[in-house]
Design brief:
By secondary structure, the protein is α/β, with parallel strands linked by helices. GO terms for molecular function: hydrolase activity, acting on ester bonds; nuclease activity.
């Protein structure tokens, strides 16, 4: 099974991939415009061909509607989508990088990918998926 977790944002997209015995974060994708985001997600799907996509879903805020639209688009294309509360993923990612002595400057570029990794790990635990 191959699972792609996406921390979807208007400035950056973080992604993390799980496939048998492997869990790894992908480099954050920096967006030049919010209109580029869906295109980049489609590129991730084409490149990694996941069986399941996990989307971080914020409890509130304007990005929530964007996530819902993205989820609907993916479902129409036959992609299995799971929405997962991402309420604390950024905080968890920031804390983890702080503990690893990652500089504040470097954290900015890594936080989205690390947030996606947290989403993926939460989904794997919730669904009790083993490698």
């Amino acid at each position: 099974m191959k699972i792609l977790a996406i921390d979807y944002g208007r400035k950056r997209i973080g992604a993390s991939l799980f496939q048998v015995d492997e869990l790894f974060t992908l480099p954050a994708i920096v967006l030049s415009s919010k209109f580029e985001a869906k295109e980049k997600v489609i590129q991730l799907l084409e490149e990694y061909s996941p069986d399941v996509v996990v989307l971080g879903n914020p409890p509130t805020g304007p990005i929530r509607k964007d996530i819902e639209k993205l989820s609907e688009m993916l479902l129409r294309q036959g992609v299995k989508v799971h929405l997962l509360d991402e309420g604390l993923t950024t905080v968890q990612a920031e804390h983890e990088m702080y503990l690893e002595n990652v500089s504040a400057k470097d954290r900015k570029g890594l936080v989205d990918s690390m947030s996606a990794k947290s989403l993926l790990q939460a989904f794997i635990e919730k669904e009790q998926i083993s490698s």
